Amino acid sequence: QVHLVESGGGLVQAGGSLRLSCAASGRTFSYYAMGWFRQAPGKEREFVASVSWTGATTYYGDAVKDRFTISRDNTKDTVYLFMNSLKPEDTAVYYCAAHRGIYSDAARERNQYDYWGQGTQVTVSS
Length: 126
What we know:
0% of the residues lie in helices and 53% in strands. By secondary structure, it is an all-beta fold. Strands 2, 4, 5, 6, 9, 10 and 11 form a seven-stranded mixed sheet that branches. It has a four-stranded antiparallel sheet with strand order 1-3-8-7, with no helix packed on it.
């Protein structure tokens, strides 16, 4: 069983920055791709970013490209999401997810992930 715990959410003004963290436990973290998704009220959960098991490949959703950066520290079993130039439309609950395949590449599809964190709220005020 994989356990994912997100942290770092909060309230920030438009144009500001936040760093989200996701600490993983329960299996060899470094063997699996990781992803971030978000869900705003009344909307479907959408892809934000993903990083491959090696960290060499990253994918981003169109809405966050060039503003957000995903990275991983395999020595700490942690994946990060650095969010810059935040906009009110970035307001959502952000979820960390672990890919279901060993030695996995980055992936955009929700069905590629089999473990999810509880989420952390990010609110961007205008």
